[in-house]
């Protein structure tokens, strides 16, 4: 989040009775979390605030879309969040949703990768680009003996080995210089694509996975850093210092929609306006207010405005007020994400499905980039005797950017791939394809410079903030944090100097 700034000086509360007006644009998870935090802070601090949450579509949740159909629980968008980043978990707890939280099935905590048409287990303890456990990695057929030797060079390579220049670098460049091409093509590329719907050549290491850069800085070798971290976590657990209570991936019993509907139900009465697309935001010039203009021409003045939108949706709203800011936002690349959820009778799937899913390297030349075994991963996703698979493609992998996105064709591509990968020839008993055009931010090399540029421009508009997945993290926890931070920054402006 990049938030409104409060002035310096001695702070006193806004004089009693002064009503503030805050408008949040976009009722995805970032906008909902923002409006909820704002309402909570206003109540706690007894500051009268009129909150409006303006959403262009007819529903809240944005890309979070849970559907119950024929006993299946289908997540059309995201299906879980990570517990390592605490903001989603914390929000669930504050909302009283802790009893609804579920982790992954403890019996099958592994995933597969496709290699030359064969479904192979990813070596236990492998973390995106490097092993945190040596024995399973050395025994795995996923990487050839030569590839393993090249990967092990990380143990002796100096810091920054093979690096050109001191600036940002792509994820692919980092993996190549520390671990070699086979590690990139066979494991890092499909694992990263499954998270970001983007290729590692396109992604900034600093903006997406800075922890690997820190590992190189602190420990020189990434493998050594991972081994040390694992040893430390094991020792902490044995001594009872940190009981790992949550699995890495968490969701809610009835789907992520529960989080959305709970937040919606707690909004102040009348705050939510559906079917209210915003067309522009502009400062009024003299009184420090901002004016939000809806597509129907309504003009709404506000002290504070949060744009909780994907960057390409936020850019045109700011074009008149600040073309440079609009250009910077528009320059953040976004990709199309596609999920194809398929329900089958268990007996129709020859594969044992003894894991959470499979990632598919681009070298396999498939339309799918991954497939979760959803009903194995989380309980309650499919009726007895059936399974739910959730195939994942990018607009590019499925040849479906923009107008070419035909759900029927994409479902056929997914079924064709699953026939080759898992041997499924039967027709599904349930099928849902969800296409999310330009929904997933792809932080390119130099992304953090773009973020700094955006922050500089935003400093010209006190009261204006951005939240959502465009700047500081694409996952649900990051988006929640961005919305909550925007709300907290607004609350800091409830003081006058
Ligand atoms: C298919 C898919 C799978 C994913 N899987 C995961 C996962 O498993 N775990 C995870 O952590 N993350 C996942 N992500 C990422 C994460 O879900 C998103 O980054 C996050 O939910 C985005 O939330 P948001 O509120 O920022 O934006 P959005 O959800 O895009 O919400 C923005 C809202 O703004 C509205 N809007 C747009 N323009 C206007 C306008 N002019 N005026 C008013 N309203 C407007 C839209 O209608 C929408 O409701 C996934 C994303 C996708 C697409």
Strand and helix layout:
Elements: E1 12-13, E2 20-25, H1 29-45, E3 49-54, E4 66-69, E5 72-75, E6 81-82, H2 87-94, E7 101-103, E8 112-115, E9 118-121, E10 126-127, E11 130-131, H3 134-139, H4 145-152, H5 171-179, H6 181-196, H7 205-208, H8 210-219, H9 222-238, E12 249-252, H10 257-265, E13 272-273, E14 278-283, E15 290-294, E16 299-302, E17 304-308, H11 311-318, H12 323-330, E18 334-345, E19 357-359, E20 370-372, H13 374-377, E21 386-394, H14 407-422, E22 430-441, H15 447-458, E23 464-467, H16 476-492, E24 495-496
Parallel strand pairs: 2-3, 2-17, 3-13, 8-19, 17-23
Antiparallel strand pairs: 1-24, 4-5, 6-12, 7-12, 8-9, 10-11, 14-15, 15-16, 18-21, 18-22, 19-20, 20-21
Helix pairs in contact: 1-16, 2-16, 5-6, 8-9, 11-12, 12-15
The structure holds flavin-adenine dinucleotide.
Flavin-adenine dinucleotide (FAD) binds next to α1, β18, β22 and α16.
